[in-house]
Predict the 3D structure of the following.
Amino acid sequence: MDTQQAGTIDQDKLHAFMGKMVGDMSTAMSGALILIGDRLGLYKALAAGGAATPDELAKRTGTAERYVREWLAAQAASGYVEYDPVTRRFAMTPEQAMALADETSPVYVSGAFEVIASAYIDEPKVTAAFRTGRGVGWHEHHECLFRGVERFFRGGYSAFLVHNWIPALEGVQAKLASGAKAADVGCGHGASTILMAKAFPKSSFIGFDFHGPSVERARAAAREAGIANATFEVAKAKDFPGRDYDFITCFDCLHDMGDPKGAAVHIRKALRHDGNFMLVEPYANDDLKDNLNPVGRMYYSASTVICTPNSLSQEVGLGLGAQAGEARLRDVVMAAGFSRFRRATETPFNLILEARP
């Protein structure tokens, strides 16, 4: 920094900005430790077994005390666990356990750090794409992305899909309860498909995804859950088989597609005349300035390294991005031939949109 430039610097603003950067750097570094705690069961053992010294937690988990000691110190510094300097024990509050130790919780976040890990692993591919303008396909990412997406989204789907989102749609709950034909397009590992199939045993569900390994995982998950009314096939959103579906869904995936309008056109043709199309997308306002917040920061970042590159790798390559917003999604869906479109409900992380023929 030269003398002239230094004279223009507001030192208070600089200190405040550097304080933010230190916080961001410590958060970024601690993400690897969340993965370690998740994979070794350290969070679960601490939450279930109560307060522990490093040695006690190491014995519970079959790990080495010296590593656990350093890990716990970092967790306490992060505010992810509590530390009692009198007893020298560490513990988790119920709120910390909900986020880090309970995979059934709607706020469980450990899976998200597998998604974040993939961003670092695949950064060279995305950096190269910045120079060429080419895409990076979903299938080109590290496998931890696929696991992380399933684990991160499953909690929210479990909490809201059956009890809030489907009841907010026009007549869908009654259709599914009595027996309907449904398709889950872009199903990934099948978490959403399996949840619906379990809740509505009289209906039949088929999940479609273009990523073969994800379909295999979905089939295995359905077998593990004992679900007989859900099947899975490899197919693209623009040409999946079948007609006269009563209900078609897209969970957090339309914005990833190269030709979302083409997918919506095919969905419109595959629906019955009185069918329903539910579109679940990341929450976003229509104007950039209204998305400059922590949720927007997370989604724009993920969109830069995952969603937009995937779209650009496909035909058309529209590149909607994870913060497309309701207005742009409405334009895409209505241009595909739907006559009605509305926001059925929302959460801080999701828009739940409904389209009718």
Strands lie at 82-84, 89-91, 181-185, 204-209, 230-234, 245-251, 271-282, 340-346, 350-356. The first strand starts at residue 82 and ends at 84. The chain has 15 helices and nine strands.
